[in-house]
């Protein structure tokens, strides 16, 4: 492979594991609930499983802080090797945990621990992967950010490629006992490939130039939180909105429609696979458009589309509607995702960029996006009309942030502007 191809592949492999793991956990929620929460109703078990899923986001901000610190001090490449190993191994081990029937509550404890470890590793993965491309290629950053951001769809498709045949061609008893574990264990293979790829790439030219200028800070997080806190808030809210309507679509809607007996588990997998395909396509569309039209316009348009789709998606039920709404959410998410990745990286100076983009992205997904399935399900249990309210609130907030923001597309990565949000 060429050096450019190596960099792109190295940036993508870790986030593929991330989204692959998210997909197989949410898609296997019914089976995981049966394995670890067998003494409650199906609905309660799914709710507990979604809560366990959300716990993985608790340690993401910690990972963002720790790996962001060392990524800004030691370099992007070294940290990305470590985050890959932590994320991939913890995902694989999830498939090897004995059932609650075998070892009792200790099974749930192990599941929670691995979710927390996974979240810690993923806290540093996305930020470094994004910088590996943006700081290597520098120009057409919306386009090159698309390769990292396309791993959402690729991870969904990879998970579907393993999960769908298992659901379609194996007995239900097999899926409830062993079948759901296979996709998790398969992640070990991706880790081995990923380590091989990441060992081949060099440190980014932008970070190396920063070292030569003696601009590396002893405490990048101190600089970040004292001088760039407005950027963190803005990035958190933008990432949170995108993550919120993403998880609403791929995690909540399939489970909701399945619990209402409007679609089968197989139908849910088909719809999610379609989401993945459309998301990959529109990630590249959004990235290239943002290089021409700017980040703000594309992110705003995507949030407005998600806003329009939100309430109809829970009232027009059935497989056909399910596919249509997932497709529209995929377009919205795909369009916004590359401009978002570029924007929340461009706004920070090089010596705090790993800490800054990691904090923005992981805070947004940990505190706003990740809890969306659980929060929405909880609100929906009070009243059906409340299912979309949690997502609605943060879409409106994100539109306000975009309105107040400056455009970042023309910013130089070597000299990021300091005044991002105007009040």
Automatic annotation (TrEMBL):
Compartments in which it is found: Cell membrane
GO terms under cellular component: plasma membrane
Keyword Ribonucleoprotein: no
Membrane-related topology note: Multi-pass membrane protein
Pfam families to which the protein is assigned, alphabetical: MFS_1
Any one Gene Ontology molecular-function term assigned to this protein's record: transmembrane transporter activity
Domain Major facilitator superfamily (MFS) profile: 7-406
Principal cellular location given in the protein's record: membrane
Keywords: Cell membrane, Membrane, Transmembrane, Transmembrane helix, Transport
SUPFAM superfamilies xrefs: MFS general substrate transporter
Transmembrane segments annotated in the record for this chain: 7-33, 45-67, 79-97, 103-122, 143-166, 178-197, 232-257, 263-285, 297-330, 384-403
InterPro entries named among the record's database cross-references: MFS, MFS_dom, MFS_trans_sf
Cited PANTHER family: SHIKIMATE TRANSPORTER
Name of this chain's protein: Major facilitator superfamily (MFS) profile domain-containing protein
Organism per entry: Ferroplasma acidarmanus Fer1
């Amino acid at each position: 492979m060429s050096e450019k191809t190596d960099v792109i592949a190295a940036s993508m492999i870790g986030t593929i594991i991330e989204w692959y793991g998210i997909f197989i956990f949410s898609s296997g929620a019914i089976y995981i609930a049966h394995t670890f929460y067998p003494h409650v109703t199906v609905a309660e078990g799914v709710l507990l499983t979604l809560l366990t899923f959300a716990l993985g986001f608790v340690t993401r901000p910690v990972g963002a802080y720790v790996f962001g610190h060392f990524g800004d001090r030691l370099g992007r490449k070294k940290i990305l090797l470590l985050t890959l190993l932590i994320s991939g191994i913890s995902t694989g081990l999830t498939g090897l945990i004995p059932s609650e029937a075998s070892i009792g509550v200790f099974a749930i404890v192990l599941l929670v621990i691995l979710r927390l470890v996974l979240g810690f590793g993923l806290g540093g993965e996305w930020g470094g992967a994004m910088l590996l491309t943006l700081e290597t290629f520098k120009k057409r950053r919306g386009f090159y950010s698309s390769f990292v951001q396309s791993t959402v769809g690729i991870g969904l498709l990879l998970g579907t490629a393993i999960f769908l045949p298992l659901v379609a061609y194996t007995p239900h008893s097999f899926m409830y006992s062993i079948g759901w574990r296979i996709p998790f264990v398969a992640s070990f293979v991706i880790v081995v490939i990923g380590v091989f790829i990441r060992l081949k790439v060099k440190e980014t030219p932008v970070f190396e130039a920063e070292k030569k200028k003696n601009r590396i800070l002893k405490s990048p997080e101190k600089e970040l939180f004292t001088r760039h806190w407005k950027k963190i808030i803005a990035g958190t809210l933008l990432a949170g909105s995108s993550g919120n309507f993403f998880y609403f679509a791929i995690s909540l809607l399939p489970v909701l429609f399945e619990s209402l007996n409007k679609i089968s588990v197989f139908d849910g997998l088909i719809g999610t696979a379609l989401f993945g395909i459309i998301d990959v396509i529109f990630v590249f569309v959004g990235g290239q458009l943002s290089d021409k039209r700017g980040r703000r316009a594309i992110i705003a348009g995507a949030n407005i589309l998600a806003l329009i789709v939100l309430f109809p998606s829970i009232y027009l039920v059935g497989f056909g509607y399910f596919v249509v709404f997932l497709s529209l959410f995929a377009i919205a998410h795909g369009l916004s995702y590359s401009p978002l990745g570029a924007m929340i990286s461009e706004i920070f100076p090089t010596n705090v960029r790993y800490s800054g983009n990691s904090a923005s992205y992981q805070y947004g997904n940990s505190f706003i996006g990740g809890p969306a399935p659980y929060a929405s399900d909880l609100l929906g249990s009070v009243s059906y009309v409340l299912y979309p309210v949690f997502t609605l609130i943060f879409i409106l907030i994100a539109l306000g942030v975009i309105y107040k923001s400056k455009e970042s597309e023309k910013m130089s990565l070597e000299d990021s502007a300091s005044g991002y949000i105007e009040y």
